[in-house]
What we know:
Blueprint: H1 13-22, H2 29-39, H3 42-47, H4 50-54, H5 63-69, H6 75-86, E1 89-92, H7 100-103, E2 111-116, E3 125-129, H8 136-151, E4 155-158, H9 164-174, E5 179-182, H10 196-204, E6 206-210, H11 222-232, E7 236-239, H12 247-257, E8 261-264, H13 275-282, E9 286-287, H14 291-297, E10 305-306, E11 312-313, H15 323-334, E12 343-344, H16 345-352, H17 356-368, E13 372-375, E14 379-382
Parallel strand pairs: 3-4, 3-7, 4-5, 5-6, 7-8, 8-9
Antiparallel strand pairs: 1-2, 2-6, 10-11, 12-14, 13-14
Amino acid sequence: xxxxxADPASADVDLLSAVRLACVPGVGARMRQILxxxxxxxxxxxAATPDEIASIPGIGRKLPKLIPTLATDPTAERMLELCRSxxxxxxxxxxDTYPGLLARIDDPxxxxxxxxxxxxxxxxxxAIVGSRHATAYGRQVAWQLxxxxxxAGYTVVSGLARGIDAAAHRGALDAGxxxxxxxxxxxxxxxxxxxxxxAVEVIGRGALVSEAPPLSEPFRGAFPQRNRIVSGLxxxxxxxxxxxxxxxxxxxxxxxxQGREVFAVPGPIDSRMSxxxxxxxxxxxxxxQSIDDVLEELGPLFEATTTPDGxxxxxxxxxxxxDVEQQVLAAVDACGGSKTTAADxxxxxxxxxxxxxxxxxxxxVLEMRRIIRRLPGNRVTRA
Length: 383
């Protein structure tokens, strides 16, 4: 994460301009993206003339006059000093520390404000979302699923809202796992306020994340916008309870548009809180009865990542391997097995010290889990 010095003379001009753009009143996530696409950088946005800005469709009449006047406004410097003093990290979209999954969506936030830490293992993340007015059943299921995901090595992503979100964060924390809360407010303005203590725990075992400046207060349009970040940080999104008009359904739709998996927990047909989930299942979402339904559906990772215990994995299925299965898979990698090259079984026997029958039976398990493929001539390769 990046902090900017309080002295503007020593400041990172690109970061200062990016923060300045984030602070412009009336410029939300979508308009910020449009401005950056039109002018190429935040610095160039403030160098543009009012007429150039006014030529952007949908920009309105106020912003073309306002934006150039803010080019030297001290608000951004004060914001950066606040971040430095309060321990708020800033991650730019062009940074090596920017989450790789989020970078792949169509409209990634140009800046993320972070309290806590984002780690490489957070590439193995699943979102759990649902109604703020959850039933006791829904809260229990969210807590159980989050705990199971955390114990399997996944980071749990949610939105810190009442109901399902809070239960998901709590389930991950109770299991000793990592969790990320994506806020519709600034990371120094926790909402709802009764979740302030929960937010502190999340910071200790993960991160609070927002694209809004740190002191931003809640407003209606911010929460649908943040949902794309919840799904964008995740390999898949599980909806536990949702009415037929629900922010959780927006998150599920965004996950599908981003090419991520969508899961839903079924519920009673006469329950209002189950209508959205049952509709998702009818429309093709994966029905979730246990964590196994989630783990079996997740495909290969976009890129190899490191687990909290230091293992490099290429597919989520590797998190569920027994010790001997991990041993054989490590030998496949060490003996040259990849998606383009193969390892022979005799080499695996030598490398592992296992018997040929043990190696062959383990290869069968890895093949069923779609982690490796068996080739003619007693060779195996990564699937």
